[in-house]
Amino acid sequence: MQLLARCRKCGRVMKSERIDDYRVKMTCSCGFSDFRTITEKVKTVNPFYHKASFTPFLESEKGKMVLTMQKANREHLEIISLEEISMLVSSDFELPQVLQQMAEKLAVQLKVSVCSIYLMEAEELVMAATSGFDPAFVGKIRIQIGEGITGTVAKEKQHISLSRASQDPRYKSFPELQEEKYNSMLSFPITDKKEIYGVININSTSMKTFSEDEIYFVSIIANLILTAVKLRRKIASGKITAGKQT
Length: 246
Fold this sequence. Notes:
Blueprint: E1 15-18, E2 23-27, E3 33-37, H1 39-45, E4 53-59, E5 65-70, E6 76-81, H2 82-89, H3 95-110, E7 114-121, E8 124-131, E9 142-144, H4 148-156, E10 160-162, E11 184-191, E12 196-204, H5 212-237, E13 240-241, E14 244-245
Helix pairs in contact: 3-5
C-alpha cells in the first residue's frame, strides 16, 4: 500500500516504507519521519469496521495530527495522535509508560470510570496499567486464563460487553478493587488470533451498552498495543537491534 503524505516540517511529499502488518514509516528528504497505521489490517481484524468510517490523520484543535474515526452521528472521535503512535512503536519509551498513557486515553475518550490493561505473564493476566483504580494494584492483580470475565475473554479471544457485569455468571469480584460499584464492562482481547497477549477492561458506573463505535475504538487501541508488545519482545530477544531485524 502506498501512502501519500506531506511533511509537517517542510511540506514536501514523503516516501512510505512498510514496516510490518500494522505500520508504514513515512520519511522526508529533510530528515523528518513518522509512522502511520495500515487501515487494511484494521479492517480484517475488526468485525465492526463496516459499521464505522475510518478517517486518516487530521489536524486537531490542539494542532496535533490525529487518527480519527467518524461516528454514526457524523462527529469525529480522536483515536490516537502521531506522537502517541511514535511512543508505541519506539523502543525509546518503556512499555509501562506507554500502556499507562493508553489506559488514560481510553478512559477519557470513552468517558468511563476505569480502564485497565492486563498483559500475559507466566500464564497469568497481570494488571500492567490502570486509569481509575489505585496504581498500587499494578503488578499485583493476577487473573488466571478462564477466570472471571477477563480470563474468559483471554481464553476465547473474543470481546465481552455487558451492561450489568456483576450479574453475569462468569463475573468474579476482586474485593480490593471494589468493582461492585461498576455496572457496565467491556473486556477486549489483545491478540493476533493465534496467541493472547493481554486484555483491555473498560468499566463504567452507569448501566450503559457500549456502542459499536466504542468497541471499534478499543479494537484499534488493542491492535496498537499488540504491535508495541511484539516489538519490545523482539528487541528483548535480540531479533531486532538498533531498528534492524536480525
